[in-house]
Amino acid sequence: MLSKLRHFTDGGGSDLASLRSRVDVRPALGAVGAPNAPFVAVSGGTLGVCFIATVDGRDRFLKSYASVQGKPNLEKEVRILTHLYGEMLSIRRIEVPEDEEQTRVWLFMDALRPLDAPLGPRDTQGLVEAYRAQLASLPADALQTTDTLGTLIHEASRGISNLVSAGQLSSAIKHELSSRLVYLTQKWQSFSSCVAHGDLGPHNIMAADCRPVVIDWEDAFCGVDGYDYLYWLTFFENRRHYNKDILGRTPLGVEAEVALLAMILLLKSELSLRANTLAGNQISVEQRIGEVLALA
């Protein structure tokens, strides 16, 4: 989420389509010996540029970045995906000249397919625990980011004021959220740390050989155990799971879980505000945050 928040804070949102249109996948295909392979552009998240190409009779996925600021995040994603699924998905990092001064990096891997059915809370938690265990052996310098849960808490504190100014939060919810963020500020460094995906949602869980695979690691950071499961719960389609049974499943404790759920929804709403997409939401910001506060 942090990469998107920063992108729209810097005023770059309006030129994404133009930036994507300038990215040419053919040099990357030439680098893998398939310069004439057929390809089609596909969705690659907010800041990515992605294609599916048929190479040697197999569908392959290629991903790069819309702006050069996204290069470090793609490099990070390549390292993490290689650590988790390198051989299984035939993952490669490709670097090709783009002009006289710059090169462009590509992620090249087997194309995946959607899951037959969305995962529920228990299976999602199991998936998170499995990749958390694998990432415990990720080299210390692989993340190359100073972002922590503290970074998100700071961004959320700024977001409260922006959402109040935009008429999206009442004074009562503002007070409740501020109290929750104070609690997190005091507690977060005592939580068990781990590599967190940072943007885990149903759209980032795909399938390979009937096995769930987690993609889009651009926003991975030094997070806390339980964060990714809670982030997954904040997606609109997962509201159907909301009841008190979804809490208490992480080492954080229910109070911290509710505080993090509210913080994540606050940040998502702030992102929508920056990207001018709040008008498309089906229910209000205050309703969404109120739903998770009611779980306490």
TrEMBL record:
UniProt-listed Pfam families: APH
InterPro entries in the cross-refs: Aminoglycoside_PTrfase (IPR002575), Kinase-like_dom_sf (IPR011009)
Residue stretches in coiled coil: none
Domain Aminoglycoside phosphotransferase: 42-236
Gene3D superfamilies: 3.90.1200.10
Name by which UniProt lists this protein: Aminoglycoside phosphotransferase domain-containing protein
